[in-house]
Amino acid sequence: MKITENSLKIVLKVTIAIAAAWIIFMMSSCANSQPVNNVIKLPEPVASQVINPKETEEFGSYIRLFRAEASSRNILLNLESLRIYKVDRFNQDLEDRGVVGLCTYIGDKVVILIRMADWESYDTLQRELLVFHEMGHCVLGLPHDNSTDDSEVPTDIMYPYNFPSYYYNFRRKAFLDRLFGKVAENLNKKNPDQKLQHKTIYCQWKNVKNVTERTKNARKPHQP
After folding, report:
1. Both 90 and 65 in a single domain?
2. Of 13, 20, 49, 154, which residue is 20 to 30 A from 95 by alpha carbon distance?
3. In the chain, which residue ranges form alpha helices assigned H by DSSP?
4. Are residues 165 and 66 in the same domain?
């Protein structure tokens, strides 16, 4: 069968058209799979407390890790209703109070808002601490806990102030055992009052100098 020059040109054009259509389709699919970074609208009174809230997927790895840590301790969590948003900043009142994270409830959604200037200044472990702390409030229904050891160094993720990540790193398992142990204890008691209180919790999770100094002066803890 003889193939003419015109036939080759037609085949080439069709091939190019198919390839172009495939590339456009793939680019569209990839664009849809990229992390969301859209400005969102929140209802009052939360909307008046935050500036430029945005949806993002960068918290996803911490949410999955929290669920995995709970699961490894035989605690199964349904986190489908959880949303974590970043905000440029909070309103002036909350800024003056040093609020870094905000845990609240909007309809059937559990909502955590995190101030990005602080988030971007934290290392990976400090970010984990912050997200786990807020999820301790919103997901597990836990209040702040001021517990310290004999050296007055924090022993609980629900401690109301930030503390250095190197100390958390040394005793991470002990911190997580304590966090999820509270949940297991409440479940074992079968206390009907241990339901989530649907209220807004503001976390003034600033780095307090005396806490940092105490962790520096404390004897280096052993990995449990």
Report:
1. yes
2. 154
3. 5-33, 60-71, 92-96, 116-121, 124-138, 165-170, 172-189, 209-217
4. yes
pLDDT at position 91: 86
List Cα–Cα distances, 136 to 6, 47, 96, 111, 181, in angstroms: 70, 23, 24, 12, 12
User: Taking a C-beta distance cutoff of 8 angstroms, is the pair 165, 129 a contact?
Assistant: yes
CB 50 within 8 A of CB 100: no
191 phi/psi in degrees, rounded to 5: -80, 115
CB atoms within 10 A of CB 95: 12
Triad 160, 165, 167: Cα angle to 5°: 90
pTM over 0.85: no
pLDDT of residue 15: 56
Under 8 Å CB-to-CB from 30, ≥6 apart: which residues?
none
The pLDDT, as a whole number, for residue 174 is 96
Domain membership flag for residue 223: no
Question: What range defines the domain where residue 10 resides?
Answer: 1-34
